[in-house]
Predict the 3D structure of the following.
Amino acid sequence: MYAFTYERPNTQAEALSLAQAGGKLLAGGQTLLASMKMRLAAPEQVVDLAAVAELQGIRQEAGSIVIGAMTRHCDVAESAVVQAAIPALAQLAAGIGDRQVRARGTIGGSVANNDPAADYPAALLALGATIHTNQRDIAADDFFLGLFETALQEDEMITAIRFPTNVQKAAYVKFRQPASLFALIGVLVAQTEGGVRVAVTGGGNGVFRHSAMEAALNASFTPEATAQVATDEEAMSSDLHGSSAYRAHLVGVMTQRAVAQALA
């Protein structure tokens, strides 16, 4: 790890000032600190957001749940508000990493990092969430651009994420990579007032919506409806954990399981 200075601001305004001066924001550290230890990242200044109270917490508003960017995974998983309004989101959070990761990692950090196998991006995309920053509001459909790439600008910071509560049925199912507990393939299926949305993580160049699965489930919200829906093998990633063909097959299996769980 290279030498760096450490700042721990108490307000969002102070954090933004430090970030705009070149500081690297530290949301939970589950990716950044590991990258720094391996000397893959070398920020000169780290700005820890852990003490910024205005970035934390979960609140219910008319037709939505708002989760502060610095809210930890364990807090989302254990929130009675989330469990009552969007149980699939609480269940997803409860399955992120291990207990230590859930106690340190934050929803804002995960979303900003946009790891191609992370769980939260699938939740935002399938549930039609909105990402609030210090500058604007960004629909999830416009936020995730590709491998570790988002619509965030250099001087922009996620402050909260808003999830609509018009979810009729939803479930998230993932096939875990046993060492990292990341999703080899994860699928979140959500039936909302506006139709069915299906988001897939772990299988390609970042999270994506599966339009063919959505069309099949809009016609018939049953596991059988997706049994014959193919996933483009060429669009899937391939590595030592699973080939592109294997991942394409898993998308179908996980989607059927998610629908069955949503109906249960």
